[in-house]
Each structure stands twice: as C-alpha cells, then as structure tokens.
Amino acid sequence: MGKAPQRPILITGAGRRIGLALAHHFLNQHQPVIVSYRTEYGSIEGLRNAGAVCIQADFSTDAGILAFADTVKSTTDGLRAIVHNASAWQAEKPGTPLSDTLAEMMQIHVHAPYLLNHALQDLLFGHGHAASDIIHFTDYVVERGSDKHIAYAASKAALDNMTRSFARKLAPEVKVNAIAPSLILFNDHDDAEYRQKALNKSLMKIAPGEKEVIDLIDYLLTSCYVTGRSFGVDGGRPLN
C-alpha cells in the first residue's frame, strides 16, 4: 500500500503579511496548503504557482462563509489544520454607524471561525489522537481592552473564548489553541515616528517578524498535549 497523501492545511486570509508568509513556509516544506483570499493580490498568483489551492471567499455574510466551506469539502476529504488568520482592524469612527462596526468585526472574527469549525470538523476527525489542529488568531488586547477599537477587541475576546469551547468539544483528536499577537511587523507606509512609538510599547522593543509566529505554529502542530490555550506573542507589551 502506498503512503496516504498529506492532508492540506487551510489558512484563511493568506493574501498578505503573516498568512502569506505562513502559506509559503508550509509549501516550502512540501505541505499541501489551501488558502482563502478576498482580494486578488499578485501574491495569490505567487501562491498558486507555488502549489497552493487558492479559493476566493467572501466572509462578509454567513452564506459566503458556508459556500467557502462547501468548496473546501469538494476539494479535499481531510484537513491537517485550520488556521483562522483572516482579520480586519476597524475602529469606531464618526460617520460609520456603531452597529455596522460591531457587526463587521463579529462577522469576520466570530461568525467565520464558528461556522467554519463546525462545517469542516469532519475533515479533521478520523486521523488519530491529537492529529489535527485549529488555531485562532486573537490579539493581545483581549486582556486589556482598547478604547479606540472596542468592537474589534470584543470580537477577538469572543474568539479567545471559543478557543476553549472548541478545545473541549473536539478533543482528543483535534487540538484547538489561540495566538494573541501585538506588533509583529510594520506596514511599508508606517513612518519612523510611528515605528519608534510602537516599538516603545513593548518590553522587547522590536518588531520580530513573521518567523516568531511561524515557529509557534510549528510547535503547536507538533504537540500531542497542548490544547485550549492562548499564546501571547507580544514582547511583554501587557506588562509595560
């Protein structure tokens, strides 16, 4: 009998930044990858050329989330992991109804992982003890709140709580953990003054880059014991 094919890792929102780096990391290890993307960046074509299955998805409605899940199920009969990286960072601002801001944040950070975890859980089962993973990207503000991004912080706190609930529901075959980052890398347009101000907010005074998160994910995927936990990748910022 031949060796069973590797199950792909599903990464949502992999068109840029950490999601993109993570997808290439796995592809470089010859690990099959399925990614969702909202906008057709040039990076998506690069992922396709590297061997990723790229599926355009609209998570702004529940119907769009479930349609994406159906496409994933038609693409593979098993998943190694789901990494919920898709995110938006919306502040409360004049001219935008508060209910719209809250609904948008809850949609992407709560509805999407909640519905996808349920819809795709059968693809994670049947592969052995601790053989599959779900990883939620939350935020260090889950612990301290945010006066300028109240809806964002609340939605990420809900996702943090769901980490423990899904860990209880899906154990022992599926481990479910969260990663709570603060500053990981800057945007190209961030100026020197902003960068220095941001660096000074943490104890470690650096923007560590995507590798810090990738190394943690590699550890979580390898573990056969760790589940229901949230891992701060924040340079000690909550202590500063």
Describe this structure in words.
The protein is an alpha/beta fold and 240 residues long. The protein contains 8 helices and 7 strands, in the order βαβαβαβαβααβααβ. The protein has helices spanning 17-28, 42-50, 62-75, 98-124, 141-144, 150-170, 192-199, 210-222; strands spanning 9-11, 33-37, 53-56, 81-84, 132-137, 174-181, 230-233. Strands 3-2-1-4-5-6-7 form a 7-stranded parallel sheet, with helices on both faces.
Name the beta content range: 5-15%
If you average the pLDDT, what whole number results?
95
Distance between the termini: 56 Å
How many β-strand stretches? 7
Which percent range fits the helix content?
Answer: 40-55%
**Low-pLDDT ranges:** none
Order of strands across the main sheet: 3-2-1-4-5-6-7
N to C succession of SSEs: EHEHEHEHEHHEHHE
Estimated radius of gyration = 18 Å
Short structural summary:
With 240 residues, this protein is an alpha/beta fold. Helices cover 45% and strands 14% of the residues. Helix 1 links the parallel strand 1 and strand 2 (33-37).
Topology:
Elements lengths: L8 E3 L5 H12 L4 E5 L4 H9 L2 E4 L5 H14 L5 E4 L13 H27 L7 E6 L3 H4 L5 H21 L3 E8 L10 H8 L10 H13 L7 E4 L7
Parallel strand pairs: 1-2, 1-4, 2-3, 4-5, 5-6, 6-7
Q: Keywords, please?
A:
single chain; 240 residues; alpha/beta; seven-stranded parallel sheet; 8 helices; 14% strand; globular
